[in-house]
Amino acid sequence: MKNGASTFAQGVDLSLYVISGISIFFLVGITVVMIYFVIRYNKKRNPKATNIEGSNILEILWTVIPTILVLVMFYYGWMGYRPMRKVPANAIEVKAYGQMWKFSFEYSNGKLSDSLVVPIDQPVKLLLISKDVNHSFYIPAFRLKEDLIPGKNNFLWFEANKAGKYDVMCAEYCGQLHSAMLTSVNVVDVGTYDTWLAQKESTANEHPGLSLMKKNACFSCHTQDGSRLVGPSFKGVFGKTETVETDGAEREIVINEEYIKRSLKTPNADIVKGYMKGLMVPYDKILTDEQIDQIIDYLKTVK
Amino acid sequence: MAATTELNFFQVKKGLFSWIFSVDHKRVGLLYLYSIMAFFLVGVILGVLMRLELLNPGKDLMEAKTYNQVFTMHGVIMIFLFIIPSIPAVFGNFFLPIMLGTDDVAFPKLNLLSWWIYVVGALMALSTLLFGDGPADTGWTFYAPYSVRTGTNVTMSVLAAFVLGFANILTGLNFIVTIHRLRTPGMTFFKMPLFAWALYATSWIQLLATPIIGITLLMIVAERVLGVGLFDPSIGGDPILYQHLFWIYSHPAVYIMALPAFGIISELLPTFTHRTIFGYKAIAFSSLAIAFVGYFVWGHHMFTTGMSGAARIVFSIMTFLVAIPTAIKVFNWVATLYKGSIDVQPPLLYALGFIFQFMIGGLSGLVLGALASDVHLHDTYFVVGHFHYVMFGGTGFAFFGALHYWYPKIWGRMYNKTIANIAFVIFFIGFNTLYFPMLISGLMGMPRRYYDYLPEFHLPNMISTYGSWILATGLVLMLGNLIAGFFGPKPEIGRNYWGGITLEWQTLSPPPLQNFDKMPEIPKGGPYDFENNY
Predict the structure, then answer these.
(1) In terms of DSSP H, where are the helices of B54-134?
(2) 3-state secondary structure of A292
(3) Is the pTM higher than 0.95?
(4) Which among A217, A263, A220 has a CA at the least distance from the CA of A240?
(5) Do A92-198 and A9-85 have the same topology in CATH?
(6) Among B196, B17, B16, B177, which residue's Cα sits nearest to residue B91?
(7) Contacts with A47 from chain B: Cβ below 8 Å
(8) Which residues on chain A are in Cβ contact (under 8 Å) with B316?
(9) Which DSSP letter does residue B522 get?
(10) Core vs surface per residue B426-443: b (16+ CB within 10 A) or e
């Protein structure tokens, strides 16, 4: 286990050590006794068994002692967990989005980022928002995890106490590229954080359609270079003739504005042959008609 | 003696139809055995393929989607087709009536029907390999809303699990009625073997909990086919509701899988120590306590879903409480070895292996029951390791122990004991090499259901994969040895091969159709009172 890098790590690790310590003691103890009995009372050494029906004192003893021990374990687990639900009032709030198969973050000043940057020794609260299915935001170094459930507003908070870059992984199975849903949290000093936060990404020269597509994680599933991911590539997509499946029947269509609009608003209506339906969420409530036009405009340029 | 000329249950009728339409509980038990073993082997092959894929980071063998379908299929087969029916449907069916001194279960036709339902359900599950848009890729938990949205054939998979549930319900119902109504005169509840007690507790869970999973799975189908809006928030549903419903069944189901194994261990220990079990009543009642408390712990599968703090605390405490009756059992089993006259035979080795591995499984469960450490370990490989220690290292080992124990009784033949011992050692080493590194990679933070992983997790994954090869070798040797025992000259087995005390050892091997050639005698004193009966 790597060294902890958040204020929770101590409590979690303590509960781990206490429970594992008691557990290993009993595991080793009982195993040794078991092996000793098997050797000592082997039928060669002990041809005549003694019929012992039981002992009330022992039964009480090995009911009471484990009860006390498990309550001790519960206590340490509870103590380590308690601070995780008490968010300090001065916590920095960041929105953390999860969607197949990408995390993204939105800071209160509107800054967007694919990885998390946080200041050291300051509480940070993440509002966990899933755009499609269940995900789980897991930072092993912080000993912290909470699920992103669509339609439910979960949160987590932490205070990182060691500078460095730590892995963030999706821990709740979310489909094909679940194991590739990774990002990182970079713990930096306050000065670096403030500078980073103030930096505006130079999107001025970028096509607005491309910015929109990056923001909505379109490229997690669709490439621009013709290679195949979960969905068909965008390369040369506009004007292409494609075989699609509509209500179970195959038909040929030419990809035009109409088709792209329909694919964004009702993704399962036409599925390009050889791909799976059901993976894409409808964007009719997420994108405006204007934004869809910008995306179409951009797609025309992907040759 | 007339008894020696009596036909055994294999001989009374011959031919395929005399088996697949038999209402003899022994034949139904064996039908279950052969079908369960076939599916177990399919599950093992899928498991070995998964380990092969995880040997190195990146792609080794298959695509991500295929891997996801393989682990789903592995889970569905191992849970619904192997471990849930395993001990009750095979050894419960075969031995419960004999141990109670009766000639069949209460409803023999329902018993046969249960096997047929099992076969239909199993074929439905396997049909997804051939028909539709490929086997489900959701994991055996079918979590919504992914299971509602994915294009793979989830509908057929959950319908299969729904159908399989009825097979369990019928078996459970049959055992409860059999235990209440068909015990031979003199066989009071407290003279029943502990295997019967374990099956009794199991049957109540099967009967009461299985309908919940049935309706939950139908709700998934309704959601997929009709778009009802139960679990998918984009059409007004609640994904958390699914998780509650799923675990309300699936946690008690863990005890459906574990309790019968406890019963097996409680049979093996007295026979091979040649003394009474220590704390008969404590073991019997702890089964009922586990079955009861086990209903109220399901929330520990959901500690990171944003449940209220109060719910997390309650579920954590309940989880720790259910550990106590389990600990009581372990202490009583070990105490049974004290001052016994221990005959180390293959079945006993499986029982000792069970106790060791089940302890690791149970104790690693405590870490997962505690709130703080679970937040770190939830949905990591630690859970995968824990689960396999309990289910495979526990129930799986008990199943194979039972198979070695009752082998001479069922078939009137014997396997090679030296090879059985060697196979056990390889199997045991392979098992621990395969699953212990999973606990380590989980502590390091490797999430479960990962097709690919970061380089830092390479070593434990590599060791794990090597372990899977050792395990498979042990398994092949063990099964080969058991099959080899069917051939060659028939040895003289007698009635009581191991020197057991329960009623099945009073009849012929294999038993006659009516189970007993003469009225069985209830042991004097307690059910395991070797002193007054030998």
Answers:
(1) 64-76, 86-87, 93-99, 108-127
(2) helix
(3) no
(4) A263
(5) no
(6) B196
(7) 341
(8) 74, 77-78
(9) P
(10) bbbebbbbbbbbbbbbbb
CA distance B307 to chain A (A): 9
Name the residue among B202, B164, B135 with its Cα closest to residue B32: B164
Q: Which two tokens stand for residue A46?
A: 């002990």
Nearest neighbour of B375 by CB, restricted to A26, A66, A81: A81
Q: Which member of A12, A55, A170 has the closest CB to residue B375?
A: A12
**Which residues from B are below 8 Å from A67, CB to CB?**
324
For the domain covering A9-85, report its CATH number.
1.10.287
- Which position has the token pair 């209500």? A247
| Binary contact (A281, B366; C-beta < 8 A) | no
Residue with tokens 């011959």: B14
Residues of B numbered 437-456 whose beta carbons fall under 8 angstroms of chain A's beta carbons: which are they?
A: 443-445, 447-454
The model's pLDDT over A165-209, given as tens digits with 9 standing for 90+, comes to: 999 999 999 988 899 999 999 999 999 999 999 987 666 678 888
Rounded to whole angstroms, how far apart are CA atoms B145 and B137? Answer: 13
The pair phi, psi for residue B290, each rounded to 5°, is: -60, -45
The pair of structure tokens assigned to A68 is 């006390």
Contacts of residue A278, Cβ cutoff 8 Å, sequence gap at least 6: A268, B149, B150, B151
The domain spans of chain A are 9-85, 92-198, 208-299
Interface check for B37 against chain A (CB to CB < 8 A): the answer is no
A180·B452 Cβ contact <8 A: yes
For chain A, the distance separating the N- and C-terminal CA atoms, rounded to the nearest angstrom, is: 47
- Domains recognised in chain B with CATH numbers: 21-533 (1.20.210.10)
Tens of pLDDT, residue by residue over B63-101, are 888 999 999 999 999 999 999 999 999 999 999 999 999
* CA distances, B118 to each of B77, B81, B160, B402 (Å): 12, 8, 9, 22
Q: Are B366 and A73 in contact (CB under 8 A)?
A: yes
Q: Give B309-347 as a DSSP string.
A: HHHHHHHHHHHHHHHHHHHHHHHHHHHHHTT--B---HH
Q: Which of residues 125-154 of B touch A (CB under 8 A)?
A: 133, 137-139, 143, 145-146, 149-152
Q: Number of Cβ pairs closer than 8 Å across A and B? A: 283
Handedness of CA B512, B513, B516, B519 (dihedral sign): negative
Residue A238, classed as helix, strand or coil, is: coil
- Whether residues B372 and A176 touch (CB distance < 8 A) is answered with no
CATH fold group of domain A92-198? Immunoglobulin-like (2.60.40)
Distance in Å, alpha carbon of B417 to nearest chain A alpha carbon: 17
CA distance B526 to B173: 27
CATH architecture under which domain A208-299 falls: Orthogonal Bundle (1.10)
The Cα–Cα gap between B307 and B241 comes to: 11
- Give the nearest partner residue to B330 out of A30, A278, A282, using CB atoms: A30
For residue B60, list chain A residues with Cβ-Cβ distance below 8 A: none
d(CA A89, CA A108): 15
Using the beta-carbon criterion (under 8 Å), do B447 and A138 form an inter-chain contact? yes
pLDDT digits (tens, 9 = 90+) for B474-517: 999 999 999 999 998 888 889 999 999 999 999 998 999 999 99
Task: Give the closest-approach CA distance of A259 to chain B in angstroms.
Answer: 21
Instruction: Tell me which amino acid residue B230 is.
Output: L
Between A16-25, B152-161, B168-177, the lowest mean confidence (pLDDT) is in: B152-161
Alpha-helix residue ranges (DSSP H) falling in chain A: 9-40, 56-81, 190-198, 208-215, 257-265, 289-299
Name chain A contacts of B304, Cβ cutoff 8 Å.
136, 145-147, 171
Q: Is B276 on the interface with A (CB under 8 A)?
A: yes
